[in-house]
Write a structure and sequence with these properties.
The complex is a heterodimer. By secondary structure, chain A is mainly alpha-helical. In chain A, about 65% of the residues lie in helices and about 0% in strands. Chain A contains ten helices and two strands; from the N terminus they run αααααααβαβαα. In chain A, helix 3 packs antiparallel against helix 7, helix 4 crosses helix 5 and helix 4 crosses helix 6. The radius of gyration of chain A is 19 Å and the shape is globular. By secondary structure, chain B is mostly helical. In chain B, helix 3 packs antiparallel against helix 5 and helix 7 runs antiparallel to helix 18. Classes of the chains: A mainly alpha, B mainly alpha.
Chain lengths: ~230, ~350
C-alpha cells in the first residue's frame, strides 16, 4: 500500500484539521491560547508527543494484542508526555509554570489517541511519522492563530514574551499593535476563546463553501452534488 | 325587534413588529428623561450614539447576509437593542465602550445566530455583560446625581460630558483629569462595600444613600413606562410582576432574618437595574419563556438569581447575568410548561408521554 503524502498533508492541515474540523483537543486549545507564546509552546509539545506516539504505535502495531491496545497506547503516550514535561521543566522553566496542568493534560488530548488508533495502528512507520507531524502542525497552526487573535484583541500586542520559548535573543520580537491599549479582558478570558474558535471555524466553512461553489460553476454539466460534512467523534 | 348595529370591520390589522418595538422605545422615555435630569447629558448622548452604531451594524450584517436591508432596519429591533444597552451603561462611558457593546450585541449575539427571532440570549444584555467583564474601570463611571439635599446642580454641562465621552475637545482639560470628582458609587455599590457598617449606619452616613431619591425617580420612570406597555398589551403582566414580587419576597426574607447586613426590599426594587430589567429586558419575546406559566418560572428565576448575586456575588448588580442564565433555561422551561391545548386533558409534555 503506497502512502499518498499529498492527501495526508491536505487532511492534516485543512480537510480534516484536528482543531477546526474534528474539534479534538479543545481543552488545551481554549485554555492556553491567551497569547502566541503559550499557544506555540503547547502546540509544539503536542506535536512532539503526537510524532513520538505515532512512531511507537506504528513500530509495535503487529505485537500489540487488539484486546488491550488502548491501555498500551495510553502507556506509550503517558511516557512521552512525562518526558516532554521533564524536558520543559529543565529547558523552559517559566513556560512550564505558565502552562501548568495543561502539559500533563496532553495525555488526555483526543487527537493523540485518535491518530494512534485510526492511523498509526494500521500504517507503516514512515507514513505514521509524517501523519503525526502534519496533524500536529495543523493543530499548532490553529493554536497559534487563535493565540494571535486573542493576544492582539486582549493585550494589543503580538509575540510578547517569546524569550520564554526561544531564549533571551527573542525578547525583542514583541510587536506593539496598539499604543496605550486599555486591554480587552473578554478576549483573554475563556469566553473569548470560544467565540474566537467559532469565528475561525466559520471562516474555514465560508472558504470551503466558496471553493465548492466555484468548483460547481466551473463544471459545465450541471450536476447536483450532495454536500457531505465530515463528522468525527472525539 | 331592535338590534344594535355595529359596523364592521371588527378585526383590526395585526400589530407589526415595528409598531411593538416603537412603543417599547417610547416607553423608555420617562426613565431616559429621569436619568438625564438626575445624572446629566451622558445617557442621552449614549442613546444617540448606540442607536447610530446599532443601525449601522444591523445594515452591514443584513447586507453581508444578502437580506433586504431596509426591511430589517425598519423593524426597529436593532434600534431598541442599542437604546436598551445605552440605558444600561454608565453615563460617562467612552464612545468606544458603546461601540464594542453594540458590536457584540448586534453582530455576535443577534446576527450570527440568524437575526431577529433566532437569538438565544438577549442581545443588549450580552453586550452589557461583555462590557462589564472587559472594561471594569470604564463601566463604573457612574456620575454622582443631582444633589437633592444641597439643592444644587452637580451635573456637568453638555459640552463637558460630550468631551468626556469622546475624549477630545474639552473646553477645560481638567475635566478629563478630574473625572473621578464627578463619578460616584451607586446605592447598591454602597450597600455592598459597607466597610463593616450595618445597614442602618450606612443610611445615616452615606452621601450616596442620602441622594437615593434620584435612583427612585429613574426606577419610577421605567415603572411608568412598563405599566404603559402592559396597558397597551405589548406583553402580559406575568414576567415583570412575578419578577418584582419574587424579588420583594426573597429580599424581605433576608431583611427579616438580619436587617443589619441585608438591604431592605424597597432598595432592591427601586435601585439598580430592577425596573429596567423587569419591564424591558426580561420581557423580550425572543429570548424569554413562551407560555404564561413559563414566564412566571422564568421571571422568578431571574429575581432569585438577582438577589443571590447582589447579596453574595462579586458584582453589585446582577440583572444582565441573571437574565442570561435564565435565557439559557428558557427552552427547558418551555418544554415543561406547555399549556393544555383545547380538547386535551393534560398538556402535551415529555412527562405525559407526548400524548
Amino acid at each position: 500500500m503506497s502512502t499518498n503524502y499529498k492527501e495526508l498533508t491536505l487532511n492534516g492541515l485543512w480537510k480534516n484539521n484536528p482543531a477546526l474540523v474534528q474539534l479534538l483537543g479543545l481543552c488545551p486549545l481554549l485554555a492556553v491560547t491567551a497569547s502566541v507564546v503559550n499557544a506555540l509552546s503547547l502546540g509544539i509539545a503536542s506535536m512532539l508527543v503526537l510524532i513520538g506516539s505515532n512512531f511507537a504505535v506504528s513500530v509495535f502495531r503487529n505485537f500489540i494484542p487488539s484486546a488491550v491496545r488502548l491501555p498500551v497506547y495510553v502507556m506509550i503516550i503517558a511516557a512521552l508526555v512525562t518526558s516532554i514535561e521533564l524536558a520543559m521543566q529543565a529547558l523552559t522553566y517559566e513556560l512550564y509554570l505558565i502552562l501548568g496542568i495543561f502539559i500533563p493534560l496532553i495525555v488526555t488530548n483526543c487527537i493523540i489517541m485518535g491518530r494512534a488508533e485510526a492511523f498509526a495502528a494500521k500504517n507503516p512507520i514512515k507514513a505514521s511519522l509524517y501523519d503525526g507531524f502534519i496533524m500536529g502542525l495543523g493543530f499548532t497552526v490553529v493554536l497559534v492563530l487563535l493565540g494571535a487573535l486573542r493576544e492582539i484583541l486582549g493585550a494589543g500586542t503580538l509575540f510578547a514574551d517569546m524569550d520564554l520559548l526561544f531564549g533571551a535573543s527573542a525578547a525583542n520580537m514583541k510587536i506593539v499593535i496598539f499604543e496605550d491599549y486599555v486591554g480587552f479582558l473578554f478576549a483573554i478570558l475563556p469566553p473569548g476563546a470560544f467565540v474566537g474558535l467559532g469565528l475561525l471555524i466559520a471562516l474555514k466553512n465560508a472558504v470551503d463553501i466558496t471553493m465548492k461553489d466555484r468548483e460547481l460553476r466551473r463544471q459545465s454539466a450541471p450536476q447536483k452534488s450532495i454536500i457531505k460534512t465530515a463528522q468525527v467523534d472525539s | 325587534m331592535a338590534l344594535i348595529q355595529i359596523s364592521s370591520p371588527h378585526v383590526q390589522r395585526p400589530t407589526k413588529t415595528a409598531d411593538i418595538m416603537r412603543l417599547v422605545i417610547l416607553a423608555t422615555l420617562p426613565g431616559l428623561l429621569a436619568m438625564t435630569f438626575f445624572f446629566g447629558w451622558g445617557t442621552l448622548i449614549n442613546v444617540v450614539l448606540a442607536s447610530v452604531f446599532a443601525l449601522l451594524f444591523e445594515a452591514l450584517c443584513t447586507a453581508a447576509r444578502k437580506r433586504p436591508v431596509g426591511f430589517f432596519l425598519k423593524d426597529n429591533s436593532a434600534l431598541l437593542t442599542g437604546i436598551l444597552l445605552a440605558l444600561a451603561i454608565p453615563s460617562f462611558a467612552p464612545w468606544w465602550v458603546t461601540l464594542t457593546g453594540v458590536f457584540f450585541a448586534i453582530v455576535i449575539a443577534k446576527q450570527l445566530y440568524g437575526g431577529l427571532g433566532q437569538n438565544p440570549f438577549n442581545p443588549a444584555m450580552v453586550g452589557y455583560a461583555l462590557l462589564l467583564i472587559s472594561f471594569p474601570v470604564e463601566m463604573t463611571r457612574w456620575t454622582a446625581p443631582f444633589d437633592i439635599n444641597g439643592n444644587s446642580w452637580n451635573i456637568l454641562s453638555f459640552a463637558d460630558t460630550f468631551s468626556i465621552i469622546f475624549g477630545i475637545g474639552a473646553s477645560d482639560p481638567s475635566v478629563l483629569l478630574n473625572l473621578d470628582a464627578h463619578t460616584g458609587a451607586t446605592p447598591l455599590d454602597t450597600l455592598k462595600h459597607r466597610n463593616g457598617l450595618t445597614t442602618e449606619e450606612l443610611w445615616q452616613s452615606s452621601s450616596v444613600l442620602a441622594n437615593a431619591g434620584a435612583w427612585y425617580a429613574v426606577s419610577f420612570g421605567y415603572f411608568v413606562g412598563g405599566i404603559f406597555l402592559i396597558y397597551r398589551k405589548i406583553f402580559t403582566w406575568h414576567t415583570p410582576i412575578t419578577l418584582l414580587v419574587t424579588l420583594a419576597i426573597v429580599s424581605s426574607i433576608g431583611f427579616a432574618i438580619d436587617p443589619d447586613s441585608f438591604a431592605d426590599p424597597f432598595v432592591h426594587l427601586t435601585t439598580g437595574a430592577t425596573m429596567l430589567g423587569a419591564f424591558f429586558i426580561a420581557t423580550d419575546p425572543v429570548s424569554s419563556a413562551t407560555s404564561n406559566r413559563g414566564k412566571i418560572i422564568f421571571a422568578a428565576g431571574i429575581a432569585i438569581l438577582v438577589y443571590v448575586i447582589r447579596t453574595w456575588g462579586n458584582y453589585p448588580d446582577a440583572m444582565a447575568f441573571a437574565v442570561m442564565i435564565m435565557n439559557l433555561c428558557a427552552p427547558f422551561i418551555d418544554q415543561y410548561s406547555q399549556p393544555r391545548s383545547y380538547g386535551h386533558k393534560k398538556a402535551n409534555t415529555l412527562s405525559s408521554g407526548g400524548k
